[in-house]
Design brief:
693 residues, alpha/beta, eight-stranded mixed sheet, six-stranded mixed sheet, 29 helices, binds 3-hydroxybutanoyl-coenzyme A, binds 1,4-dihydronicotinamide adenine dinucleotide
């Protein structure tokens, strides 16, 4: 049973019981419709709808998308609720999202408990509300708020919903008791039914201007823009015509790759931390966090832990460095305060009680998890781990935030290899949601579990990675960056490449990203790799020359671009350096189309990603997708590189790689996994399904 019918005097109660989130699957929709008819048939005077368990309806059942539709359909259920001859009351707790809010909007009266959240997040799944949300919401809130809520997709708290007229009252208590009391009050004053659809549309706004603004922010995502069209229909059409228009747009979007990509991302985000080998493994304690090094990363990691209300002790080399670390953390925390992420009291408490700073490693003897974020230098890291071995309490997890270095080699330098793990945060560590949990050959299962538990506590999306140079993300980045460098040598400009990839949906192209990260990072990495480099590798020198000139990107104001605040301009010194290098190498530049740039760049990314899966560095294709989505700005509406590859068609991609290999068969070596999938007529997502526990 997913929907319970109970009679409480004159009030019929329809209570959904479809854990975990009371999604509006077919059985729930059917239950609502039948329950309403039964209530009317039995002479009830009012109907109360609520959700059992932790929430009201959190939306349509997303697992039904892409499958044949089964009646009763949600728009019809909503219309029937609204047309009920007796008042229908919604008592909302938890989340009223998507179809869930649309059911509430079809009720005649709405109450919510203070902690409830209400929203129409459909655009984040690549669709728009499809059961009247775009037509009913503006009739209550006006167009400006409706466009913000529907195109933005962010839920609002109950207090704001009350201010907007979206709910009629907020009360603390049990939704059933509150709802029954409200129903009885309404009956006592003979309150009428109150269909939202009968309200006139609000005063129109400039929909074209609103659409232009949403289009700019959407960076190629279709659904937020289409939502404005659906909302605008409510201003020029009678309600039921508007509903039909909304449905038309909804169906159209349902057929798009963007919908498929975004729903893949939704489920992958929930799947990624589920590892069968950790099912029965309890994590170790993680109340007290030690951080070594208070530079960019150490300060960010300490901030992330403090924001999650963990106690932190940070160790630096001397008091000056300690002072800088304290300033960095204080700056991060005041940013979090400004953005409303923490309260003033939380902010003050953290600085006065939760954070300790020290110059001696002895301060770390109580730490449960110690995260090293010192310079990226194996010898220094080994020294740090040797010191840790001497002072860390037995069972403490010893983690490194290294970007590229071998966790197994670091572990081997201690006698506690099973306690050692990589915890690779992304900059800024208190903002970026990705955490790569790098599992060494000897890492104990409960140490891995502790890495995931810490990630969860910090609100991160944690992805398991095996050990290799750069782990999942930086290794793949290295491949597609190399491809971009090759295209520059062959004739494309960094600026054309950035523009082409920004048009694909990346917030920044690779050269703008390099400026942001600091050109010195790539420079140091190229130097590190130089001794073992294969002579067939093509490595450009112009990037080194920029660094040799002291230009490290945004931090020095000059790199591929000249940076002034948030604006960027092409740096006129860059193209002459490139042209000189092409001349030295005897290369005559050729023209690239934007399409070719994107195809090559993506082929390099997908091919390396496939290798990362084939070698078991990433367990499943979805792990790679999450890393690129959460840490590298890959547009979420493409689903991640391997989901994107599936949707493009793997045979075409493989053909591209073979063709590119005709000119450079060292760089373009097709992955065995990619060839195998093409030969078998399968896709990457089949591998995800095989490994879903
Ligand atoms: N359909 C199917 N399954 C859903 C679901 C949905 N709408 N929402 C959540 N789930 C599943 C999750 O996949 C997860 O399953 P798992 O345990 O097997 O991994 C489980 O429910 C719990 O979800 P979370 O881990 O996300 O739980 P949280 O407590 O962290 O978050 C939530 C709860 C805020 C409700 C979050 O799950 C969420 O945002 N869900 C999606 C809400 C949404 O987008 N609704 C709109 C749907 S589209 C729609 O309604 C169309 C309509 O206009 C016609
Ligand atoms: P950074 O140079 O900003 O900070 C390093 C800090 O470590 C300095 O403040 C230094 O004083 C301190 N330090 C050095 N030796 C120490 C020791 N023995 N004991 C205590 N403190 C010591 O470097 P950053 O950028 O914070 O990088 C740190 C680590 O994080 C590196 O391994 C890097 O590869 C990795 N990383 C960096 C990212 C980035 O974007 N900057 C992203 C992810 C990982």
């Amino acid at each position: 049973m997913t929907l319970y019918y109970e009679k409480h005097g004159d009030v019929a109660v329809l209570a959904a019981d479809n854990p975990p989130v009371n999604a509006l699957g077919q059985a729930v929709r059917g239950g609502l419709q039948d329950g309403l008819l039964r209530a009317i048939g039995e002479g009830a005077l009012a109907v109360l709808i609520l959700g059992r368990g932790r929430t009201w309806f959190a939306g349509a059942d997303i697992r039904e998308f892409g499958k044949p539709r089964v009646a009763p359909f949600l728009p019809d259920v909503c219309n029937r609720i609204e047309a009920s001859p007796i008042p229908v009351i919604a008592a909302i707790h938890g989340t009223a999202l998507g179809g869930g809010l649309e059911v509430a909007l079809s009720c005649h009266y709405r109450l919510a408990v203070p902690g409830a959240k209400l929203g129409l997040p459909e655009v984040s799944l690549g669709i728009i509300p499809g059961a009247g949300g775009t037509q009913r919401l503006p009739r209550l809130t006006g167009y400006e708020e409706a466009i913000a809520m529907i195109s933005g997709g962010r839920p609002i708290p109950a207090s704001k919903a009350l201010a907007l007229g979206l709910v009629d009252r907020i009360e603390e208590g049990d939704p059933m008791e509150l709802g029954l009391q409200y129903a009885r009050e309404l009956l006592a004053r003979n309150a009428p039914t109150r269909p939202v659809s009968a309200l006139p549309p609000p005063a129109p706004v400039d929909f074209e201007a609103a659409k232009a603004q949403v289009t700019r922010k959407a960076r190629g995502q279709l659904s937020p823009v289409a939502a404005v069209d659906a909302i605008a229909a409510s201003a020029r059409m009678p309600f039921f015509d508007g509903l039909a228009e909304e449905r038309r747009i909804f169906r159209e979007l349902m057929e798009t790759d963007q919908r498929e990509g975004l729903i893949h991302a939704f489920f992958a985000e929930r799947q990624v931390a589920k590892l069968p080998e950790l099912n029965d493994v309890s994590p170790r304690p993680l109340d007290m966090i030690g951080v070594i090094g208070g530079g960019t990363m150490g300060a960010g990691i300490a901030t992330a832990a403090l924001l999650a209300r963990l106690r932190v002790t940070l160790v630096e080399i001397d008091t000056d460095a300690l002072d800088s670390a304290r300033k960095r953390i204080a700056g991060n925390l005041s940013g979090a305060l400004r953005r409303g992420k923490i309260s003033q009291s939380h902010h003050d408490e953290v600085l006065s009680d939760a954070l300790s700073l020290a110059t001696g490693y002895d301060a770390l003897t109580d730490a449960d998890v110690i995260i090293e974020a010192v310079f990226e230098d194996m010898a220094i890291k080994k020294q740090v781990f040797a010191k840790l071995e001497a002072i860390a309490k037995p069972g403490a997890v010893l983690a490194s935030n290294t970007s590229y270095l071998d966790i197994d080699e670091i572990a081997a330098s201690t006698s506690r290899a099973p306690d050692v793990i990589g915890l690779h945060f992304f900059s800024p560590a208190h903002v970026m949601r990705l955490l790569e949990v790098v599992v060494g050959h000897q890492s104990a299962a409960d140490v891995t579990a502790t890495g995931f538990a810490l990630g969860k506590r910090l609100g991160k999306v944690s992805v398991r990675s095996g050990v290799c140079d750069g782990f999942i993300g930086n290794r793949i980045l290295f491949a597609y960056r190399t491809c971009a460098d090759h295209m520059v040598l062959d004739g494309a400009s960094p600026y054309q490449i950035d523009r082409a990839l920004e048009a694909f949906g990346f917030p920044m192209g690779p050269f703008a990203v390099a400026d942001l990260a600091g050109l010195d990072i790539g420079w140091a990495n190229r130097k590190r790799l130089a001794p073992d480099r294969d002579p067939r590798e093509r490595v450009p020198r112009y990037a080194d020359q920029l660094c040799e000139g002291g230009h490290f990107g945004q931090k020095t104001g000059r790199g591929y671009y000249i940076h002034d605040g948030r604006t960027r301009q092409e740096n006129p010194d860059v193209l002459p350096l490139i042209e000189a290098e092409r001349a030295d190498l005897g290369l005559s530049p050729r023209a690239f189309t934007d399409d070719e740039i994107t195809r090559r760049y993506m082929a390099a990314m997908v091919n390396e990603a496939a290798r990362v899966v084939e070698e078991g560095i990433a367990r499943r294709p979805l792990d790679v997708d999450m890393v690129l989505l959460m840490g590298y700005g890959f547009p979420r509406y493409h689903g991640g590189p391997l989901k994107w590859a599936d949707m493009q068609g793997l045979p075409g991609l493989l053909e591209d790689i073979h063709r590119f290999a005709e000119a450079d068969d060292f760089f373009w070596q097709p992955s065995d996994l990619l060839m195998k999938l093409v030969a078998q007529g399968r896709v990457f997502d089949d591998l995800n399904k095989e490994q879903t526990p």
